[in-house]
TrEMBL record:
<feature type="compositionally biased region" description="Polar residues">
    <location>
        <begin position="46"/>
        <end position="64"/>
    </location>
</feature>
<feature type="region of interest" description="Disordered">
    <location>
        <begin position="171"/>
        <end position="211"/>
    </location>
</feature>
<protein>
    <submittedName>
        <fullName>Uncharacterized protein</fullName>
    </submittedName>
</protein>
<feature type="region of interest" description="Disordered">
    <location>
        <begin position="44"/>
        <end position="77"/>
    </location>
</feature>
<feature type="compositionally biased region" description="Basic and acidic residues">
    <location>
        <begin position="171"/>
        <end position="197"/>
    </location>
</feature>
Length: 211
C-alpha cells in the first residue's frame, strides 16, 4: 500500500493506493483500488491550549444542558422557609421581679421601657386599652435596643417591661395628682380659717341712739 500526502494551509490530504493481489493457479491478477481521500486538520503550535487540547463541543453542550436543568430545578423547587425558634415565657415570670434577669439588667431595661411608654403609650388609658399601632411601636422600641427580646414568644419580655413602667408612671402621676389635691385642699382650708379669724377680730361699732 502506497500513501502520498498532499498538504495545504489548513489541512493535509492523504491519498492511499491499495494494491490487492489475487493469486490463481495459472494467472496472477493485480487489482488496484483507490481509497477515498482522508483529510486531517493540522493544529498550529502557537494556538492556545494546543498542548492540553480543546474541549469537545459535545461536552460543553452537555454541561450547559445540565446547568440549565439544575437552574430550572432550583427555580421550580419550593423555597425553604426558615423559622426562628422562639423562647417561651418562663412559668414563674409573672412580672419584672420574677423574670430571669439580674438587678443590673432590670435597671437598664426599665430605663429603655420608660422611654417607650413616654413616647408611644397613653397613660390616661389602661394598658389593655392601648391602640394596637402604638403598642406595637412601644414593643419595637424595646426590641430594637434589647435585641434578644426579638426571640421571645408573644413579646413577653417587652410586655413585662412595658406593663411595669406603665404602672410605675401611672402610679407616679396619681401620687403627684393626689399630693397636689391635698395641697390645694389644705390651702383652701387655711384660707377659710384665716377668714374666720379676721371676722372674729373685727371690732363692733358702738353706736348710741340720739336723744
Amino acid at each position: 500500500m502506497n500513501i502520498s500526502p498532499t498538504t495545504s494551509n489548513s489541512s493535509s490530504t492523504f491519498t492511499a493506493n491499495v494494491v490487492l493481489t489475487t493469486h490463481s493457479t495459472s494467472v496472477s491478477t493485480f487489482t488496484t483500488l483507490r481509497i477515498a481521500v482522508v483529510e486531517v486538520e493540522e493544529i498550529p503550535e502557537n494556538t492556545p491550549n494546543a498542548s492540553t487540547g480543546s474541549e469537545s463541543p459535545l461536552t460543553s453542550n452537555r454541561e450547559s444542558t445540565n446547568g440549565e436543568d439544575e437552574t430550572s430545578t432550583r427555580h421550580n423547587s419550593p423555597a425553604l422557609q426558615l423559622r426562628p425558634i422562639l423562647i417561651p415565657r418562663p412559668l414563674n415570670a409573672k412580672d419584672v421581679k420574677t423574670a430571669p434577669w439580674s438587678e443590673l439588667l432590670i435597671t437598664s431595661y426599665r430605663f429603655i421601657a420608660r422611654q417607650a411608654v413616654d413616647f408611644h403609650l397613653d397613660i390616661k388609658k389602661p394598658f389593655s386599652g392601648q391602640a394596637v399601632l402604638m403598642l406595637g411601636k412601644a414593643r419595637q422600641h424595646v426590641k430594637s435596643v434589647i435585641l434578644q427580646f426579638s426571640a421571645h414568644q408573644k413579646h413577653w419580655g417587652a410586655d413585662l417591661l412595658l406593663k411595669d413602667q406603665f404602672k410605675s408612671k401611672k402610679d407616679t402621676l396619681s401620687a403627684k395628682e393626689r399630693r397636689e389635691k391635698e395641697k390645694r385642699e389644705e390651702g383652701e382650708k387655711e384660707q377659710q380659717e384665716n377668714e374666720k379669724r379676721t371676722t372674729k377680730k373685727k371690732p363692733t361699732s358702738d353706736v348710741r341712739p340720739l336723744l
